C-alpha cells in the first residue's frame, strides 16, 4: 500500500497551490468539483492522489493534508481556479459494491488501470460501463494507464488505451505516480475539460 | 437545552458556535420585525401535521422551505447588513429550530426505518462477539484502543442531538479522531498514508464496536434534513463513508472479511445462540429454560436435573457406537430440538425487539413560536420572553 516514490516533484509548471477555503462557493472563476477515482486494487489510485496533492505542499507538513479527504486547488492560465475534492475509493473486491455511494454526484471520474495488468484494464472498462449506466450523465471521464515507468513490463499497449478512451468519449493519459510523470497534466487536462457555469 | 457537539479540529468546513448562534437566531425571531418570518415558520411546521409521513417528500418539502426562507431572510430588513456568515448562522438556527419541532414527525417516521435500525443493530451485536481488526486487514500500527474508544464515543453521541447539523457533527468528530490516528501513525511509524485504504476499514470497525443507536434512521435523517448546501465537501465525504460502513455491515457475509467463510458462519451461529441463551435466562421461566437451553454443553448439564421433559440420550454417544436402529430416534430428537429452538428464537427475538425500542430521552427544543409550548419549556423563554 505504501506509495514508495522519489521526492515529490515541486516544479509543477503553471500549477499553483491555492488554499482559500471559500466555504464551498463555486462560481464561474472558482470551480469546486468532486472527483472520484475508480479502478482495481493496486493500480495506484491512492498514490496518484497523494502525488498530486502532496506535490503542492511541503512534504513534512502532513497536517495540511487530511488523511483521507484530500483536496487540491489548481490555477489555470486564464486565472480561473479549480478545486478538486478527491474521493478515493477502495479497489478491494469486498468494497466494490460501495462504489456507487462514492461516485454519486461526482463531476469527474478518473478510471485507473495498471499498464502491466490486462485484468486491471478489463476492470477499468467495467467501471466505465458502470459510470455510463449509473453515473451523473454530464460526468467528465478520464482513463488513466498508471505505472508507465514499468514500460519493460507493459502488457496493455498504449493504443488499446487510446482506442478505448476515444470510443467512450474519455480523456486518456498514461501516468506514473512513482516518477510523478504526467500526474499534474492529468488534473490540468481534466480542469480544462470541465463544463463552466455561465459567468454572471 | 442540549449542548452543541464541539468541533474537535481546526477544519473550516463546518460552521462553529452552535448554541451561541442559535440563541442569536431565537433573539432575532422574537423581534417584532420578524413576525412575518415567524408566521411562515409556524405555518410550515403546522402544515406537517396534516400529512402522513413520507420521508422523501418530507425531505424535499423541508429543503424547499429552507431555500425559500433563505431568500426571505436575505431580503429581510433585520439582516440588511448581514455578512455571509451571519446569514449562514441564521439558516443554521432555522434548521435547528424547524427540525427540533418536526423531530418526532420526521425521525424514523416509517416502520420500515425502525425495522432496518433493529436489523443493523442486531447484526452488529453478533459481529461484536468475534470480529477482530485483522478481519478487516487493519494494519497493526492503527491498533489503538484509546483512539478507537474516542471515535466510538463520538458516534454514540448521535442520539443526544435532534438537529441534523449536530448529528452530522458527531459523525465528523468520529471521523476526525480516526483521521488523527492515521496522521499520527503516518508520522511516527513511517506508515505511508493511503487515504481511504486505511480509513474505511477503521471506520467500519469503530462502527461495529460502537453500535450507534438507530444508525440507519440517523443517516437518513441527516441526508434528508441537513441543508443541502452544507452536505458537501468534507462533510459529505465523511457522511458517505459512514453510509458506506453501514452498507458494508448490512451486506457483510463470509466473503467480506479476511476470515475463513466456514469459521465466519460458525461464529455468527455461536453468537446467535449465545444471545438467545442470554435472553432465555433473563426472560423465561426456569422450567422452560431447562428444557430448551440451546447451548449444547449447558443443555447436557441441565439435562440431569430436569425431571421429566425431553431426554437427549445421545449427548455422550460416540459416532462409532451408533447403529442404523438409532436413526429413527435421532431424527425425531433432531426435529424436536429444531422446532423448540425455532420457536424459542422467535420469542426471544420478539422480546429483544421490544426491549431495544426504549427511546433515548431527548430534551425538547426551545420554543418561541407556539403559544403553548409543549411540557418542558426552556429557560430562554422565561428569561427573555417575559
Ligand atoms: N512502479 C510503480 N508503482 C506504483 C505506481 N503507482 C503505485 N505504485 C505501487 O502500486 C502499489 C499500489 O498502489 P496504491 O496506490 O495503493 O493502489 P490503489 O489503486 O490505491 O489500491 P487499492 O487502494 O487497494 O484500491 C503500491 O505498492 C505502489 O507503490 C507507479 O506509477 N509505478
Ligand atoms: Mg488505494
From TrEMBL, chain A:
Matching entries from InterPro entries are given as:
P-loop_NTPase, Small_GTP-bd, Small_GTPase
Q: Which UniProt keywords apply?
A: Nucleotide-binding
Domain of life from the UniProt record: Eukaryota
From the record, give the transmembrane residue ranges: none
State one Pfam family annotation: Ras
Under the GO molecular function aspect, what terms does this record hold?
GTP binding; GTPase activity
* The keyword Nucleotide-binding is annotated on this UniProt entry: yes
What CDD domains does the database record attribute to this sequence? Answer: Rab5_related (cd01860)
- Please indicate if the UniProt record lists Nucleotide-binding as a keyword: yes
Q: What is this protein called?
A: Uncharacterized protein
Task: Tell me which species this is from.
Answer: Quercus rubra (Northern red oak)
From TrEMBL, chain B:
Its GO biological process annotations read: vesicle-mediated transport
**Alphabetical list of Gene3D superfamilies matching this protein:** 1.10.246.120, VPS9 domain
Q: Where is the VPS9 domain?
A: 114-258
* SMART domains per record: VPS9 (SM00167)
This protein's GO CC annotations? cytosol; endocytic vesicle
Provide a Gene Ontology MF annotation, just one: small GTPase binding
**Source superkingdom:** Eukaryota
Residues covered by region (Disordered): 282-312, 357-386
The record's InterPro entries line, in alphabetical order, gives: DUF5601, VPS9, Vps9-like, VPS9_dom_sf
Q: Where is the composition biased (Polar residues)?
A: 282-295, 364-378
One Pfam match = DUF5601
User: Under which name does UniProt file this protein?
Assistant: VPS9 domain-containing protein
Q: Which species expresses this protein natively?
A: Quercus rubra (Northern red oak)
Amino acid at each position: 500500500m505504501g506509495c514508495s516514490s522519489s521526492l515529490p516533484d515541486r516544479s509543477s509548471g503553471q500549477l499553483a497551490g491555492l488554499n482559500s477555503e471559500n466555504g464551498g462557493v463555486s462560481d464561474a472563476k472558482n470551480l469546486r468539483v468532486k472527483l472520484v477515482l475508480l479502478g482495481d486494487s493496486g493500480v495506484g489510485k491512492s498514490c496518484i492522489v497523494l502525488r498530486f496533492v502532496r506535490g503542492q505542499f511541503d512534504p513534512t507538513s502532513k497536517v495540511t493534508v487530511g488523511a483521507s479527504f484530500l483536496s487540491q486547488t489548481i490555477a489555470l492560465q486564464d486565472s480561473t481556479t479549480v478545486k478538486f475534492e478527491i474521493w478515493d475509493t477502495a479497489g478491494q473486491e469486498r468494497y466494490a459494491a460501495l462504489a456507487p455511494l462514492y461516485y454519486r454526484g461526482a463531476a469527474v471520474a478518473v478510471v485507473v488501470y495498471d499498464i502491466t495488468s490486462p485484468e486491471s484494464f478489463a476492470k477499468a472498462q467495467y467501471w466505465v460501463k458502470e459510470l455510463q449506466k449509473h453515473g451523473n450523465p454530464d460526468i467528465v471521464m478520464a482513463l488513466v494507464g498508471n505505472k508507465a515507468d514499468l514500460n519493460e513490463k507493459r502488457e496493455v499497449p498504449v493504443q488499446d488505451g487510446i482506442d478505448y478512451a476515444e470510443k467512450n468519449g474519455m480523456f486518456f493519459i498514461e501516468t506514473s505516480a512513482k516518477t510523478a510523470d504526467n500526474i499534474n497534466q492529468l488534473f490540468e487536462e481534466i480542469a480544462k475539460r470541465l463544463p463552466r457555469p455561465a459567468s454572471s | 437545552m442540549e449542548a452543541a457537539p464541539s468541533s474537535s479540529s481546526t477544519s473550516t468546513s463546518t460552521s462553529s458556535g452552535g448554541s451561541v448562534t442559535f440563541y442569536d437566531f431565537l433573539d432575532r425571531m422574537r423581534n417584532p420585525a420578524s413576525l412575518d418570518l415567524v408566521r411562515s415558520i409556524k405555518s410550515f411546521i403546522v402544515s406537517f401535521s396534516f400529512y402522513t409521513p413520507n420521508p422523501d417528500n418530507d425531505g424535499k418539502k423541508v429543503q424547499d422551505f429552507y431555500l425559500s426562507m433563505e431568500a426571505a431572510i436575505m431580503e429581510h430588513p433585520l439582516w440588511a447588513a448581514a455578512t455571509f456568515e451571519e446569514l449562514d448562522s441564521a439558516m443554521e438556527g432555522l434548521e435547528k429550530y424547524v427540525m427540533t419541532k418536526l423531530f418526532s414527525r420526521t425521525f424514523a417516521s416509517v416502520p420500515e426505518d425502525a425495522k432496518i435500525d433493529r436489523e443493523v443493530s442486531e447484526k452488529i451485536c453478533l459481529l461484536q462477539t468475534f470480529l477482530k481488526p485483522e478481519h478487516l486487514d487493519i494494519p497493526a500500527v492503527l491498533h489503538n484502543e484509546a483512539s478507537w474508544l474516542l471515535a466510538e464515543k463520538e458516534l454514540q453521541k448521535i442520539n443526544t442531538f435532534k438537529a441534523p447539523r449536530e448529528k452530522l457533527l458527531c459523525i465528523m468528530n468520529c471521523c476526525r479522531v480516526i483521521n488523527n490516528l492515521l496522521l499520527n501513525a503516518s508520522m511516527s511509524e513511517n506508515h505511508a498514508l493511503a487515504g481511504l485504504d486505511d480509513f474505511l476499514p477503521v471506520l467500519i470497525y469503530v462502527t461495529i464496536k460502537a453500535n450507534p443507536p438507530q444508525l440507519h434512521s440517523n443517516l437518513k435523517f441527516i441526508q434528508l434534513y441537513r441543508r443541502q448546501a452544507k452536505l458537501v465537501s468534507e462533510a459529505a465525504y465523511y457522511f458517505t463513508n459512514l453510509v458506506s460502513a453501514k452498507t458494508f455491515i448490512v451486506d457483510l457475509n463470509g466473503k467480506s472479511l479476511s476470515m475463513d467463510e466456514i469459521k465466519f458462519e460458525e461464529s455468527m451461529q455461536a453468537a446467535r445462540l449465545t444471545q438467545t441463551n442470554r435472553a432465555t435466562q433473563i426472560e423465561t421461566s426456569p422450567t422452560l429454560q431447562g428444557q430448551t437451553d440451546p447451548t449444547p454443553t449447558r443443555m447436557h448439564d441441565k439435562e440431569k436435573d430436569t425431571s421429566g421433559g425431553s431426554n437427549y440420550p445421545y449427548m455422550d454417544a460416540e459416532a462409532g457406537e451408533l447403529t442404523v436402529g438409532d436413526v429413527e430416534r435421532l431424527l425425531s430428537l433432531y426435529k424436536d430440538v429444531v422446532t423448540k429452538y425455532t420457536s424459542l428464537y422467535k420469542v426471544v427475538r420478539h422480546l429483544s425487539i421490544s426491549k431495544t425500542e426504549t427511546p433515548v430521552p431527548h430534551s425538547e427544543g426551545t420554543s418561541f413560536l407556539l403559544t403553548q409550548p409543549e411540557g418542558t419549556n426552556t429557560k430562554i423563554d422565561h428569561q427573555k420572553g417575559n
